[in-house]
């Protein structure tokens, strides 16, 4: 079966650049054809700062927003996090969403599309990798990096350059390999 990919928009800021970038990447994933690709917007889940009384490993969720988020995360075989960098660090809305659930992330492959100023968001990615490995995700090396992202936006539409287009293809090919390779592990644990 074709693995299911969630392209997750990490920024929940009004006017965020993340949405047009994620729309481009989602379309690239659809065209690539290795995944059943879905755009998932964290804004739609309106997750408050983590407010569950129990450790997420227990899956004893008391809030409807957590149950909705859990079902979404559970449904995917792989993730691409489309993330900015805030203060040389990880995007707080993404860290919060990651913290909310645990087993739902386990044994899934993930990759990053990052953007920002001159760094292209790579410091945020490095910080986030530390978190996702604790959640037993497999973050792959291949990535799309977008420095000075504002220069590639016009009327709310993101236009990739050749490097980013090529990187997106390489990322999707490698991510699909990992998504399939990890499937037996997920099934065994389930
Ligand atoms: C609180 C805050 C901190 C930021 N820190 C960084 C930073 O450390 N590095 C960087 O490249 N851009 C930084 N920026 C600029 C962001 O890259 C830029 O605002 C980008 O559009 C944010 O992504 P978003 O629009 O999807 O939220 C920061 C922006 C904000 C609002």
Strand content: 15-25%
Number of domains: 1
Give me the CATH fold name. Rossmann fold
| CATH class label | Alpha Beta
- Mind telling me the C-alpha Rg? 16 Å
Count of distinct strands? 7
Summarize the amount of helix as a percent range.
40-55%
Largest sheet: 5 strands, parallel
Q: What does the average pLDDT come to?
A: 97
Tell me the CATH architecture: 3-Layer(aba) Sandwich
> What structural class should be given to the helix and strand makeup?
alpha/beta
Summarize the helix and strand pattern as letters: EHEHEHEHEEEHH
Categorize the overall geometry: globular
Q: Give the strand line-up of the largest sheet.
A: 2-1-3-4-5
- What are the distinct ligands in this entry? flavin mononucleotide
| Low confidence ranges | none
Q: In the CATH hierarchy, what is the superfamily? A: Flavodoxin domain
Count the helices. How many?
6
Please give a structural write-up.
The chain has 190 residues and is an alpha/beta fold. It has one domain (4-189): Rossmann fold (3-Layer(aba) Sandwich). The chain is built from six helices and seven strands. It has helices at residues 18-32, 64-75, 92-100, 122-134, 162-181, 183-189; strands at 4-9, 36-41, 78-84, 109-115, 138-146, 153-154, 157-158. It has a five-stranded parallel beta sheet with strand order 2-1-3-4-5, with helices on both faces. It has a two-stranded antiparallel sheet with strand order 6-7. It is globular, with a radius of gyration of 16 Å. The two termini are 17 Å apart. The model has no long low-confidence stretch (mean pLDDT 97). The site of flavin mononucleotide has 13 residues, from loops.
